Each structure stands twice: as C-alpha cells, then as structure tokens.
Amino acid sequence: MKKGIKIATIGGGSSYTPELVEGFIKRYDELPVKELWLVDIEEGREKLEIVGNMAKRMVKAAGIDCEVHLTLNRREALKDVDFVTTQFRVGLLDARIKDERIPLSHGMIGQETNGAGGMFKAFRTIPVILDIVKDMKELCPDAWLINFTNPSGMVTEAVLRYGKWEKVIGLCNVPVGAVKSAAAVLNKKEEDLFFKFAGINHLHWHRVFDKDGTELTEKVIDALYGPNADPAVVVENIKNMRFLYEQVKNLKMLPCPYHRYYYMTDNMLKEELEAFHNEGTRGEVVKRIEAKLFELYKDPNLDHKPEELSKRGGAHYSDAACEIINSIYNNKGTVMVVSTRNNGAIDDLPYDCAVEVSSIIRAHGAEPVNFGKFPPAQRGLLQLMKAMEELTIEAAVTGDYATALQAFTLNPLVPSGDIAKTVLDEMLEAHKDYLPQFFPKEAAVH
Amino acid sequence: MKKGIKIATIGGGSSYTPELVEGFIKRYDELPVKELWLVDIEEGREKLEIVGNMAKRMVKAAGIDCEVHLTLNRREALKDVDFVTTQFRVGLLDARIKDERIPLSHGMIGQETNGAGGMFKAFRTIPVILDIVKDMKELCPDAWLINFTNPSGMVTEAVLRYGKWEKVIGLCNVPVGAVKSAAAVLNKKEEDLFFKFAGINHLHWHRVFDKDGTELTEKVIDALYGPNADPAVVVENIKNMRFLYEQVKNLKMLPCPYHRYYYMTDNMLKEELEAFHNEGTRGEVVKRIEAKLFELYKDPNLDHKPEELSKRGGAHYSDAACEIINSIYNNKGTVMVVSTRNNGAIDDLPYDCAVEVSSIIRAHGAEPVNFGKFPPAQRGLLQLMKAMEELTIEAAVTGDYATALQAFTLNPLVPSGDIAKTVLDEMLEAHKDYLPQFFPKEAAVH
Amino acid sequence: MKKGIKIATIGGGSSYTPELVEGFIKRYDELPVKELWLVDIEEGREKLEIVGNMAKRMVKAAGIDCEVHLTLNRREALKDVDFVTTQFRVGLLDARIKDERIPLSHGMIGQETNGAGGMFKAFRTIPVILDIVKDMKELCPDAWLINFTNPSGMVTEAVLRYGKWEKVIGLCNVPVGAVKSAAAVLNKKEEDLFFKFAGINHLHWHRVFDKDGTELTEKVIDALYGPNADPAVVVENIKNMRFLYEQVKNLKMLPCPYHRYYYMTDNMLKEELEAFHNEGTRGEVVKRIEAKLFELYKDPNLDHKPEELSKRGGAHYSDAACEIINSIYNNKGTVMVVSTRNNGAIDDLPYDCAVEVSSIIRAHGAEPVNFGKFPPAQRGLLQLMKAMEELTIEAAVTGDYATALQAFTLNPLVPSGDIAKTVLDEMLEAHKDYLPQFFPKEAAVH
Amino acid sequence: MKKGIKIATIGGGSSYTPELVEGFIKRYDELPVKELWLVDIEEGREKLEIVGNMAKRMVKAAGIDCEVHLTLNRREALKDVDFVTTQFRVGLLDARIKDERIPLSHGMIGQETNGAGGMFKAFRTIPVILDIVKDMKELCPDAWLINFTNPSGMVTEAVLRYGKWEKVIGLCNVPVGAVKSAAAVLNKKEEDLFFKFAGINHLHWHRVFDKDGTELTEKVIDALYGPNADPAVVVENIKNMRFLYEQVKNLKMLPCPYHRYYYMTDNMLKEELEAFHNEGTRGEVVKRIEAKLFELYKDPNLDHKPEELSKRGGAHYSDAACEIINSIYNNKGTVMVVSTRNNGAIDDLPYDCAVEVSSIIRAHGAEPVNFGKFPPAQRGLLQLMKAMEELTIEAAVTGDYATALQAFTLNPLVPSGDIAKTVLDEMLEAHKDYLPQFFPKEAAVH
Ligand SMILES: [Mn+2]
Ligand SMILES: [Mn+2]
Ligand SMILES: [Mn+2]
Ligand SMILES: [Mn+2]
To answer: Which chains touch B (3 or more CB pairs under 8 A)?
Structure first.
C-alpha cells in the first residue's frame, strides 16, 4: 500500500469537503494522498463544482502533489481506490427538514439522527450505501470504507450485516468533542487523559482516567453538570446540554450530548417545538448557513478552509476521518472511537452488531478495547436502542411496512400508538422518491 | 408434608379472600387445608373481620374440617405454616389512587403496576415483603411463599435477590385470562391447546399450539386484533384492548393486555386522562366497588363468593394461587405461568433475575420451560423494562434518591427530564408515611 | 394427523425391530400404526427378511390392523409417512468391531460411541442421515424423524445444522436405565420421582427429586457408588459401573454410565484391553449374540419378542421411540429425555447445538426444561466434548482430514500426538468404503 | 506517584533477581526505583544474601540512586511500597522435583505448571499469595501486585476472586518468546508486527499481522511447523517444539509452547519418561544450573547479570515485569500480554475469571483488547482447562479433598480413575508440610 494513496469521497460536493482536504494537506508527509476523487450526483453538480474548485485551489496553495478529480461517475472514481469516504446526504437538506418538521408537527421529537427523523434517514441512506458496497466489491475489493454519513452506526451495521463487507469503519465527531470538553473542564492536556468509550453511535458513555491512574469521571460530571458548573469553563455549544445532575451522577459515566434526547426528552421536545414555531428547525438553520458557505466557496481567491465552516456543526468530523485513514495507512495503533463490529466487546449487545467503542486502529483494522457489561441504567436503554436499530436497518433493507412500524413503536422518542402509524405513513409519503424499497413499482403506501 | 396443611394469608382482609377460600374448598379432597390464618394490620382490622367472618361461614357451609383464624399478629400466624400467600396492599386503595392521580395530573400514565405508580407500589411493598421473609426464616423456614401482591414480578425478584429466599413463586391472573380468550376465539378447549409464555410480569408474550402441533398464534392475533375481529366472540373486558394490527402481527407472538401501555401509550394516556377528568381513575372506581362488596360480605347469610366480586378485577388470581399450592403439595407437574428465577430460561435477561414463564410446577418448585432468545422487537422492550425493574427494586431496598430518579428516567411511561424529577418528588412526599427507607429519621425529601 | 399412522423404519433389519413392533402393538389403541415400512439395504436383505417376517407374525398374533412392508427401496417407504425411525448401522457390526479393535491395538479406548470409534461411527453415519433427510424433504416434508442410530447426539446435531431439518428428535435408552436404577435403589416408584437430566448424548448428568420436593440425588449417589453400596440392590448390568465415590459425590449430580470412559479412563482401558486380548470386544460379543437371535427369529412359530433380546443391550431403546411417537401423536406432554436443539436450555453450550435434556414432548415437538449453568466440573468436560462433537460432525460432512485430526486431538479418549494421526490414518483406510467424503474419486488417504 | 518508586520483591533470593535488577537499572531514567526490598524466608536466607549482595554491586556499578534492602520481614518491606513483585517458590526446587517425579513414576506427565505438578504448585502457592494480599491491604493498599510466580494465571485468579484485590497483573515470558520467534522466522522487526494473543496462562493462541494489515499467522505456522520448516531459522529452544502440522495449521492461530502438553501428550510423555530415567527431570537439571549460578553470584567482582542465567529458563520474565511497571508508572499505553480479569474479553470463558490477553497497559491498569469467540478446537480445550483451574484454585483455598480429586479427574494430563486418586494421595503426603489447608491440625490424608 506504500505507494501514493487514492481516495474517493462520495458526496464530495458537501460543505464539509474543505475540512477533509485540509486534513489531507496537513498530513501529507506521512499520508501522501496523490488522487482525491470527489463524487456527487446530478442533483449536486453545482455544489460539487463550487467546492471541488475550492479544493483544487487549496491543494495548489499547499503545494502538494495531489490531483483533485470531480465526477458524477461513481464507478470511475471507485476504480482501484485505497479508501472510500462517504459523506453524502440522500435527498439533501430538504429531506432533513422534513425529518424534523413532520414529527414536530405531531408533537414529537424531530431530529435528523434520533427518533422518526433518524429512522427515515436510515431508510433513505442504507440502500445507497449497499449499492456503493456492491460497486466496491467489483472495483476496489481491498479498499477501506470510512463512513461518516449518518446515522453512522446503523449505516455501518448495514454494511457489515447485509453488505457482507468487513473493511468498514463508522465515524462520528461526538467523541472528539467529548474529549475536548473533558480536557477543558479538567484543565488538562488531552494526551494526558485516557478515555474509555462504549455504546452505539450517538448513544455512548465514557469514563476518563488521569495519567496517574485516577478515575476522573465523576469530577467531569460535576464540572459539566453539577450545581456549581462554571459556564465560563464549559466549552461553547454544550452550554445548553442540560441533564439532571443526580441522574447523570448516578450513571458514574459521562453521557454523550445526544443522551439529552433520551434523558431530557420532555425538555428537548419543548425546545424543538419552540424553534419549530419560530426560527425554524436545525435543518432550516443549517440550510441558511450552507448557502452562505457556498457563496464564500465561490470566491476564486479563497484557498483555505474558512472560519465560518465551524458554525456548520460537524467540526472535527472530517479531521477524524483523515486521522483514521492515517492510522490505518501507517499502522499507528492510535486509540480512536469508531463504529465497528461488536464481537463481544460490549457483552450486553448482540455479538454481530455494530458498536461504537474505543479501539486500537491498525493497518488490519479496528481492534476494540474490551468493555464488558454495563450497569442496568445504561444497559436497558442501550439494549432497547440496539433492538430499534436492528428493526430499522431490516426495514431499510426489506422495505417491510410492519417492520418499520415495529421500529417506530420501539423508539422511545416516538409515542407509540395510532400516532406512530400516522407519522410513519405521512413520512413514507413525503420521502417516497427516495424509498424505492417501500414503494415497489406503483404500489401505494399502506 | 402429607399431614393437613396450614396456610397464612398476609392481607387476609382483602376483598379477594372469598375467591381464595372458595379455591381451597373446592380442592379440599386433594388439598386438605386444615388451618387458614388470615392476617392483617390494625388499619385493616374492620375489613379483616368482615371478610374473615364471611370466610368462616363459607367453610362451615362447605362442611370441611378447616379452622379459619383472624389475627393482627403476623408472627403468630406464620409459625410452622406450609404456605404463605401475600395479597396485601401497603397504604390501601388510597395509595393506589395517588399512584394514579399524581402522574396523570402531570400528563403522564397513572397506573398501579406500570409507570410511576407501579414503581411507587414497589417502593412501598418491597420493604414489607422483605420483613415477612425475615420472619419466615425464623418461623417457617420450609414454607413456600406464594406472592400475588403487585408488582408481582419485582416483589418476587426482591425476595430472591435481597431476601435470599428461594422458595417463592410469583403469580398473576393475566396468563389465565390470555388462555381463556385464545380458547374462546379459537373455539377450542383450553386443555387441547399448549401455551408458551415468556417475559416478565405484566410484560410477557405467548405462543399457542394446537393439539396436532400446528401453531395457532397468528390465527389468534388475527381473531383478536385483525381487521375482521368479531367483537361478539372476543370476551368481555378485552374489547378495548386496542393494538395496531400490523405491529402485533409482526411480533408473531401474542402480547399481554398490559402491553397496551407500551405499544399504545398515546392512546392509553388519552383514555386515562378522560377518566381522570370524569368518572375517576380505576382506583377510585375499585374503591366504590369494594365498598359495595364489603357491604355484601357483612350479610350474615352470605356464605359463598358473590357474583359481584368478578367486577373487582383480579378474577382467577386467587384460584391460580390455590392451583399452585395444589401442584406443589401434590407434585402434579402442571404447567403454569409463574414468576421465578430466570436461570437462563430467557437468554436475553440477566441470569439471576425474576421472569414470568411457563413452568412445570412440582413439589420441589417451578421448573421453567426453556424459552431462549426473543426477536429484536420483544427483546429491546423486555431488556429495557428489566433494567428499569432492577433499578426500582434497588431503590426500594436502599431508599436511594438518585437510583429512583434513574429508574424514572428509564421507564418508558414516564417522560424523562425535569418533569420526571418533579413527579418523583411529589410522589415521595405524598407516600412519605410508607417509605421509611427514603426518609430515614427526619431527613426531608431531596 | 388423526388418521392411521404410517411409519418407516430405516435399518428395519436390525435385531431391535421386535421390540419396536412390540411397542407399537401394546400402544395400538392410542397409537394406531396402520403401516410399518421396514427398510434396509441390499447388504442387509437377509436379516430384513428374517426379522421382517417375524414382525409380520407378531402383528398377526396381536390381531391388530397393521400392514408390515419389507423393502430395499427407501424412497418408496418414505412416501407420505408420519414418522421415520432410524436404527441403521453403516458397515454393520464388522465396522463396529474395527472401531473397537484398531484403537485398542494402539493402546487406547476402543468403543462404538466414544473415542476414535464413536467418531468414525459419526463419519460413516452422518452422510447417510443427511441423504435420508434430503429424501424426506421431498417425500414426507411433514414427518418427524426419530433417530436412534448412534452417535445419537451428533446425528441429531448434523440433521439440525447441516440438514436444516427441524422435526428431529434423538433418542437413547441410557436415561431410561438411569430412572430404573434410581427407583430401584430408592425402593420407590418411578412415577413418584422427578428426574432432571441435562448434557449431551452419552454425557449427561441428572438430579432426582422425591414427590414431596426433597432432592434425593446424593442418596442415590451413596446407594450406587458409596462405600456401603449394596450389590444386591444395584440392578444387574451396572454392577461394574465403577466410579470414585468422592469424585461423583462432589458432582452433586448423578453421572451416566458412559461417564466411566471419562472419569475412570485408566480403569476402563484396562478392562477393554483385557477383553480385547481374550473374549473379544463388545462388538464381537454382540455379533455372536445377534447370530443366535437371528436363528431364533427364523423360527416360524415365534410371534413375540424373545427374552434373549434383552442381552443384546439397547433394551428400552425401541420402547422409548414408541413412547416419543405416542407423545407427539397424542400431544401427551410427557417429560422425556431427548436430543434436541439447545436454544439456551444449557447456558454453557452453543445456542444452536444439540443437547440431551428432560423435555416436554407435545405434538409440536420437544420443549426442553430449562437447565441453566453447570458447576465447573461438569461444565469443563461438557464443553470440551461438545467442541469435539462439532469438529467431528464438520469432518463427517466435509471429509476434511485436518478437521478430523483436530477432533481426534481434542477427544480425551484419544492420546494426542503422533499416535492420534497414526490411528486416524489406519481407521480411514479400514473404513474407506463407507467414507466417500474423505476419499473423493481415487484420492488416497493423507 | 511521581516521587521515587519503592518496590518489594517477594522471593527476592531467586536466581532471577539479577535480571530484574538489570531491568530496573536500564530503565532508571524513566522509572526511578529508589528502594528495592528483596524479601525472602528463613529457608532462603543464604540465597537471599548471595543474590542480594550481587544486586547491591550491580546498582553500585550502575551508579544509580537506589537502595537495595535485604529482609526476612515481609511486613517491613511491604510498608508503603508502590509495586510488589512476586517470584517466590514454596518448597523450593525440591518441591518442583516431587511435582515432576511422582506423576512420572506413575506414568503420567510430570511438569511444574501442567498436570498434577502444576496443580500442586497452585495448592502450595495460593495460600501464600492470599496471605501477602492480606498484608498489602493493610500496609500498601494502593500498590500494584505484579505476579510472576507460577502457575501465574491461577495465582492471579485466586488474588482477584478470593483475595478481592483488583490491582494485580499476572505475567509470563512465553508471549515474549513467541513474538521473538515469529519475528525471527518472518525476518521482520518485532515493532512492525501486531500480535493478538488470547487464552489463559500457558494455554493461549495468537495471530500475527504485518504493518500493511496482512495477516501472517499461517505463514508463521508454516515456517515453524511446516514440512519445510528450516531449523536454522527457528530459534534455539523451540527446535523440539513438535506439533502435527495439519492440526496446528487447521487452528489458523499459533499455539504456545505449552500446547505441546495437550496437543502432543503422548510424545511429551515419552520424552519426559526418558529424562526421568536418565539425566533427571527439568527440575533436577535446573537445580544443578542454579547451584552453579549461585557460585557465580558469590563472586564479589561480579556486578552484572551473567550470561549463564539465560540457560536457567525464564529469560525475559523479569524484564517483562520491569516493562509492566514502567508502563503503569508512566501511563505508556503499551500493548502487552498479561493475566487479568476477563470481563468478557474472551466470550467463551466465565466473566470474572483470569485470562491472558493482549492488553493496553496504563496507569489505571490493564485494558484487554477484545477477543470474542474462539472456534471449537480452541474453545473446547480452553473451557476444559479453565474449569480445571477453577476447581484447582477452589481446592487450594478450601483444602477440600474431593474438589482436588475433581480437578485431577478433569485435567487432561492426569489419566482419570483409580490412578488419579493414588497420585493425589501420594502427592498430598509428599507436600504435606506446605499444605496446611489440606491437613488441619493433625488430620491424616484421606
Ligand atoms: Mn455523529
Ligand atoms: Mn398481575
Ligand atoms: Mn445411547
Ligand atoms: Mn509462564
């Protein structure tokens, strides 16, 4: 593999691409990316051209030997690549906005990776990723698939279970942020701390250890969520990450930000409904931010990642992807938090499902650090959510209506009963164009 | 053991007692109960006398050789008994009404064995049952404890795990009803069908097999919940047992009636709120029924179980208790559905927890029929609920506020967030007199 | 199914057949076998005719309405049957004698269901049973397969795992004998005792309970193996069933007779070598007994099972088969010990393997009584043996030499090392004609 | 902890001590050992003085600031230490020689960590280690216990399970040797390879990966055990490490050298019997080597580890101990192979047992890399051996004769039957002085 590296990025027209390119540029000495193929679909042609040209300017400004290719032909790009990264969004931000607004219009959580919205994102995304895997088997059978399309955990599990593709790693930037905020409140260097994460994507917990072996987990809980938490120290963005102190303290582990949807459901719903009725959902906000970003990207003089990208959310996502690729390529043995096959690392979950755990990253892949069993509070929620994920993935693959309804019934963010069916039906209809598995030929919704 | 049998019934002043007495009378030939000790507390003295005298009349009318004793001295009653049955209700119906009305007043499910209400019933009941077990170790170390105080599954688990008492069986009348309704819609005799139940108390699923080996489960699902379900055939009482047909059909198992709280949460909540604002909660209705029942029981000419008792709910409960006792005493090998230690009968749950499963009942106890693994839809909910039970039991034993809050957070019928804490605090205050473990000495609520 | 029953018996020329026929005759009222097809192969034509004609005489003498058919055409017999029973022996007793003599000639245990011999019996038998299953799928897809060909557990597992045939039950007469000997030494009626068996075929343990719930296991251990064991009470045949008293007492469960091979390996080997050098191995003895039996069977006046059959070994085997069929046909719910899929009944073994456990037998099949976890002494040996079985079955199906060698290495009755390979090679050569999977086309042994 | 380090070495009079001292000297810059307490018992006073004085000379020659203390007072040494290392041998080499010769005199494997000998080493050692732990709780409750007294895995499990002491790591030099031999035959640098070990002490398997992610395991199997293995490349010492090529190839993992006892039992027994009847057992050889070593150590001019120590066996043992201490002290995150609590890292073994697995070593302890499930060939042997270990440890703690006999019966290197009891009895008698738990007061052997 120690020749130059060829990478294909599916969804290359994404606003994230500059961070990815920056990540490759700054690692070029140890990770010589010689070809970067940015792939998109007809619908995204304009964005691909804007961001692709900017990528070319960045590479040129950096003075590295790397060709950036823009293409709408995925198969051309996949040919003989070493790594495929995925950051596509089926149906673009308009689909996300529907994922948010439809549930909210029925008084339930509307969010792009949780609740009904996250399930529909899985329904739209999984058939596409399985199609990519089909192409990879033919065109680049030795490549690694580094997925950061959400819902990242379910996508990874679909690739493993239904795609029968082993060389996949799922990524998320949440653990990166958790490490940063713990280091900040402890006033310690990240590299002096050891983090042990376990759970599933957007639903994991972690413990923190100091370099002398002392566990600092409760100290971080206190600093972030305790009665005397100092907002000045707490990093921006998580200021509104409200939890009940007694409850998270009782966990003896740190929750992830998405736990707010499960631990503070009522409060989160109120916040979301407020936004829904006023400035718009997060998807609508992001759409406005993106429009501005693309205006910036058009500037033929811009040849580096602009500051404004950080507002987009998803910071560190692409950088984490570069670091994974680097660790694999250089067999570094870095400990990172990734979605990978469980194989018993978490005893409470099925052996062959995908989990998100601290793992050693080497050339042969991710080796999870063993976690073992969770105490009941974590275990119960985690097991429920994994079962919900299994059903969601199955429905995404089979297009079976009853399985989708079952998954809706199980999801704790979807009130069960007639309302679940009503929302399911409405969302199926709204996303019809991206759900061929549920609408074979001309068949109408249930 | 083949001498005459001595039984102590804790909560002997219950309105259920006549069914229990009737059960013993009709089994007298094979199950010669020579002494029945009805035990109650000072608060229940009047009810004990009314129902106890009625029990005496019943026994006399039946012409059997059985002494009925009424006592407020539990230890006197427990001395050398063969079986202890428990049907007490800490705080009487007034506590139940609080369990229902407080959550409903905050817009959440209020029910006596589910949600916040069920958890508080556990908080009040578990310390008392552990105290009974302590007495049994001293006074009747070879006796069987047949518990039908709710929440029956959690009470059984508390006895096993914290009471370290092995000879306990938990009971519920729900499986009896499920058998009857399946037989009714299939128009077959109960004894020609085989039922395989598994889950936990008030959250189990079952499959039905015909005498030629055909599985009839889906047929029963169709008959009870399908688009063409015939209300005339469906037995009274379950007419309002609404489910989403596609969802229960997808289970390939029959849910229990309490599943409505989890599968039709939104609908159930609306129904409950309607009652809350109008005729009153179930507890209030039952209180009125009971008042009438006790008026009947006062009649010195009444010497048999009156028809009106069937409206009380809980029919077949006491009869099931008699049948368990009979199966143990006579080593009958009957297959019944009971709460007992898991020991791996259900692979998805902890080895040492209590489960409710079809079991062979013999003199040495309950031998569960192996069940194995559930599919994901059942598994996820079941695992969540068991974790919630573990936390609830732990909080009931330790009186730890954070553990109680954790259990509230996990319970799918309690919206998580600030509202959970508010309701927890309000209920702790309301039930203060029955929760010494949460209020040691003079300490105020959190 | 309540028409008359049609049964096909593969290996119908076996000397066991009269017991089977007797079993059907005596159950005729509740189990009306209208057609019994005795099937054998060309090699066994003579025996089939002798024993088949005897079967016809038995049926006639009994005056029941049952046709006995003799055929060498297996497919003709399988057509539309309700039950298939298997009692064939690939390679006849001569193959058994090789299974015994070759290992013994190298100083290791030579026995037909244990050690190298049992593994080769599996190698010869499994391809044939899978071929039968293939026919059954086509000719009698609703039939039950009742297997009593040894090694019964491995054959059952092969049918489940590789044959993908669910309606199979494996049988053995060992548990029947264990029940009889426990009842004898306790001087109690079998029906007053409850037995809980668990393990795998020829390697299971059991506990015994009295009708008042008292566990009698240790009492039976003492009576059978204790220092004061009374040979007069101990039933014939098990008098030489030597165990170390302290060791079996420590098990707190009763071992099965075949445990002698694992618990008393050294002593058993000495006994076998003695026989090997003198009167011949058990196979040679049985061959002489069988010759005499078939002489008896030839007698045109003999129309009932002769006493002499009991010396053959395997008594109660066929009767157990009749009882299983009866329990299935009449949905009796009898508790019997059978080989069936584990599904977690024994936690220490793989979920999908075959185990031999006390099970409720109903029309829809065998429902194992849950067993749970064994203590370490039982667990370790059981897990080793199951792994050995898995490898043996895999080798039997694939004909892979290295897998067979691996199984030999794991088997505790085969000393590992060069000697294992030597014996494997010699036995492969000796049984070559019955092992096409190991000798595709003309390829020589490894 | 970043003050100077204080270490106590129990069994400080061992011939290994110079390697340990050398290890501390060469790491002094990052691992500043300021006090080294060499502890021994009266019986070992002379050896302690010889080797202790040599240690003092080594430290002096190295010019480091480290005090070496010699003491027979264990409690004085343990006071406030940071690390305790254990390398004691109860009963000295004479006990080892009995562990070897008694079994061999009965024709069974006689080896110090396997078979009957290893079990007796556990019987003698475990009570002493538990006594050390008792002192540690009082005198150095924050210290780490680094055990390299054999049987290292059982000793570690005893400390965890019965000593209730979490801060323990068990060590062995076998993985170090395996890494060296794989690197040698592959002609690659150790640091370019990744090794994944799992199993239990002296019974683990490993896989090898190249720095480009390619698995090299089978290549190493071929190089070491294949028909074309080149003795010139194969490192000394393992030249006689015979395995059956087909069998180890089928494992798809590399066995450890001690696997020869289980995979080549017959051959190993012959080799041992040959030595037993000629040059003497390994213990006798080692005794002669040690005598010479101590002669060398007496030389007042010797101030460095002599070459001759490498013949002693156990090379790299002490160096591994220094490296573990270094990794803990400096929170290095090195991946090493250690005995630690399973917690599900190996799914096939009990959750709370000790396993030997590749682990990340940090200041808070060993974090095992998850392994998951073994294929059946490894699984069966591993599960058997772990059960045998559990029984051995239990017998070592309780002194229960029947449990010891059970462990003997299970051990595959001890032929079961009367001979097992005979050898057990003879060894109990021979080691009587070191087995107070089996001989309370004056009670005679069974
Ligand atoms: Mn994410
Ligand atoms: Mn109930
Ligand atoms: Mn058998
Ligand atoms: Mn070692």
So the answer is: A, C
B315 pLDDT above the threshold of 80? no
Helices (H), A27-90: 45-62, 74-78
CB atoms < 10 A from the CB of A433, how many?
A: 11
What is the Cα–Cα distance from B377 to D375, expressed in whole angstroms? 30
Q: Name every chain D residue with its beta carbon within 8 A of the beta carbon of C240.
A: none
Q: ω into residue B151 within 30 of 0, thus cis?
A: yes
> Between chain B and chain C, how many beta carbons pairs sit less than 8 Å apart?
106
In chain C, the N- to C-terminal Cα span, in Å, equals 50
Task: Tell me if A270 sits within 8 A of B424, measured CB to CB.
Answer: no
Q: With b meaning 16 or more CB within 10 Å and e meaning fewer, what string describes B115-136?
A: bbbbbbbbbbbbbbbbebbebb
Residues D112-165 have pLDDT tens digits of 999 999 999 999 999 999 999 999 999 999 999 999 999 999 999 999 999 999
Alpha helices in D330-414 (DSSP H): 376-398, 401-410
Question: Which residues neighbour A433 within 8 Å (Cβ) at sequence distance 6 or greater?
Answer: A91
Q: Which residues of D246-267 are buried (b: 16+ CB within 10 A; e: fewer)?
A: bbbbbbebbbbbbbbbbbbbbb
Angstrom distances, CA of residue B336 to CA of B26, B196, B320, C342, C364: 19, 10, 9, 22, 18
C-alpha torsion A183→A374→D375→B352, nearest 10 = 170
Point out the residue among A2, A331, A369 whose CB comes nearest to the CB of D360. A369
Q: How far apart are CA B270 and CA D48, in angstroms?
A: 82
Q: Which DSSP symbol is given to B372?
A: B
CA atoms within 13 A on the CB side of A134: 7
Of A196, A335, A368, the CB nearest to D370: A368
pLDDT in tens, B253-282: 999 999 999 999 999 999 999 999 999 999
Q: Is A273 on the interface with B (CB under 8 A)?
A: no
Structure-block tokens of residue B230: 């015939």
Which has more pLDDT, B47 or C238?
A: B47
Average pLDDT over residues C338-346: 98
In whole angstroms, how large is the CA radius of gyration of chain B?
A: 21
CA distance B24 to B22: 5
For residues A384 and A378, give the distance between their C-alpha atoms in angstroms, rounded to a whole number: 10
Q: Which residues contact D49 (CB under 8 A, 6 or more apart)?
A: D13, D70
Query: pLDDT of C157-191, one tens digit each?
Result: 999 999 999 999 999 999 999 999 999 999 999 99
Closest C-alpha among D263, D129, D122 to residue D203? D263
Bond preceding residue C368 cis, omega within 30 of 0 = no
The answer to whether residue B250 neighbours chain C at the CB level (below 8 Å) is: no
Catalytic sites of D, residue numbers: 258
Phi/psi at C153 (nearest 5 deg)? Answer: -70, -45
Between the alpha carbon of residue D342 and those of residues A354, B274, C175, D372, the distances in Å are: 21, 54, 37, 11
- Do C115 and C411 meet the contact criterion of CB atoms below 8 Å apart? yes
Give one DSSP letter per residue of C186-215, joined into a string.
HT--GGG-EEEEEEETTEEEEEEE-TTS-B
Q: How far is CA A316 from CA A176, A288, D291, in A?
A: 7, 21, 63
If you write DSSP's letter for every residue of A94-139 in order, what string do you get? Answer: HHHHHHHHHHHHTTS---SSSHHHHHHHHHHHHHHHHHHHHHHHHH
What's the CA angle centered on B382, arms B378 and B385, to 5 degrees? 150
Assembly ipTM: 0.96
Cis peptide leading into D151, omega within 30 of 0?
A: yes
Place of tokens 């037993």: D276
